[in-house]
């Protein structure tokens, strides 16, 4: 009888534990397996079309995801439009006139709604689109934990204060990632996202004209299209070697003092991340593996789950 009593207590404990996990909203790879089985096929299809049209879109979606997750967690807050009574994250300094790719997320959402109405969150669509964008440009793939819900609000102040800028020091980068529960190694591997994408002249002008830890030929190349005054919005690839391929060339750039942003070169400038940068520059497989793991970790930052938030019908506005 004592044995049966013990077993019953154990089973009761197990049930309570599972209920507790459910209440806290564990994300799972199979969240929509029954409710929206075509989800990942739809996301992949739209992202394939978007990147065929413009390779840069992979970087744009990845940046959206990063900027979303660093402000109140991965809750699709960045996708909300301003209204007469609400100012969201789109107009924040790091996002204004630079955050892009919203129309791709809207296109995915429209097809997902047609397949399974009011079921899949915009936050999960953004997470899946990010993964596919990276992979379609030659990067790794990973299983995306799902089950996030969408925020009913956003934070302009959070977007202005939580996102590291292109002039950040190594200590600032480590600190800002640590605030989100990410390690210095996570920061360094996630910075490898700069292997794709473009940057505006105004954000790297000071580096190419005034800094010493920069390859002179590289500085000269960038100065050709980014003069000391004017041309603020002229674009240049962040990775000088293979700007449309998701690979480890970004780290080769850093080892050769060809980081475009001050914050990039800070990762390889006699500091704590030098050894890791050197490893990634010579070991593409290690970078790809670490990047995939860090992206799952990034996507797990404070998701809304269970009955928190909502499933937006239109990613631009609350229901």
UniProtKB/TrEMBL annotation:
Indicate what this protein is called per its UniProt record: Peroxidase
Q: Which residues form the signal peptide?
A: 1-25
Q: What residues sit in the active site?
A: 67 (proton acceptor)
Q: Which UniProt keywords apply?
A: Calcium, Disulfide bond, Glycoprotein, Heme, Hydrogen peroxide, Iron, Metal-binding, Oxidoreductase, Peroxidase, Pyrrolidone carboxylic acid, Secreted, Signal
- Phylogenetic placement of the source organism: Eukaryota, Viridiplantae, Streptophyta, Embryophyta, Tracheophyta
A GO CC term assigned to this protein in UniProt: extracellular region
Q: Where is this site: Transition state stabilizer?
A: 63
The record's catalysed reaction(s) read: 2 a phenolic donor + H2O2 = 2 a phenolic radical donor + 2 H2O
**Coarse class of the protein's main subcellular location:** secreted
Q: Which family does it belong to?
A: Belongs to the peroxidase family. Classical plant (class III) peroxidase subfamily. Belongs to the peroxidase family. Ascorbate peroxidase subfamily.
The compartments listed are: Secreted
The cofactor remark states: Binds 2 calcium ions per subunit.
Q: Name one GO molecular function term.
A: metal ion binding
What GO biological process terms does the UniProt entry carry, in alphabetical order?
A: hydrogen peroxide catabolic process; response to oxidative stress
User: Binding of substrate: at which residues?
Assistant: 164
Q: Which SUPFAM superfamilies does UniProt cross-reference here? A: Heme-dependent peroxidases
Q: Which cofactor does it need?
A: Ca(2+); heme b
What is the documented function of this protein? Answer: Removal of H(2)O(2), oxidation of toxic reductants, biosynthesis and degradation of lignin, suberization, auxin catabolism, response to environmental stresses such as wounding, pathogen attack and oxidative stress.
EC class name:
oxidoreductase
